[in-house]
Give the backbone structure.
Amino acid sequence: MDDAKEEDLHTSGTDPLPFRAAVDALRAARLRPQVEIEPTRAPQRLAPYAYALEAAVVDGDQDLADGRLVLLHDPAGHDAWRGTFRLVTLVRAELEPEMAADPLLPEVCWSWLTGALTARGLAFGEPSGTVTRASSHYFGGLSERPAASQIEIRASWTPREGLGGVPDTAAHLASWCDLLAQIAGLPPAGPGDASVVTLPQRRGPQSR
């Protein structure tokens, strides 16, 4: 990424101090090596200030899962958020059709999100989102392709604001990467938790 484009994706000196501090913490976070992450264009209409990251869980030259995390900030506060910051995410990965057909899969995937946050001791409020299963079947000239199934988690939550009105965005980013790794089928980065459910039949890695 060239310097001009990279600078354009970062905060400016005129942005509120809490937002700049929250973004700086995101940029300084240390993450597990399988997760490749970089800044990307943030949506402009969701809040007065926004910063976005995109990430992929990588094995060699293959992506196991990918996602996007957006930090929103409204200094005036937002009634629906019950705070001045909001985190919004999209996470997705491909599955074996048999696993995608499991009727409990949406509840399990949602528990991965909330569990990733609570496992790091993070306080959050107003969580909301969807878990979507999508299947693709190929016909005609594409009929030789096997059926494909994908799981997608779209969610948002309000991180608790700490000193100076700044949430611990680095810890929230780390928990989000835990979620990405889990949906990709990777083992936990730290000591295992017997209550964690993983995907035993995830579809093979996708070429990048």
User: Anything to note?
Assistant: The helical segments are 3-8, 17-28, 97-100, 105-119, 169-184. The chain has a mean pLDDT of 83.
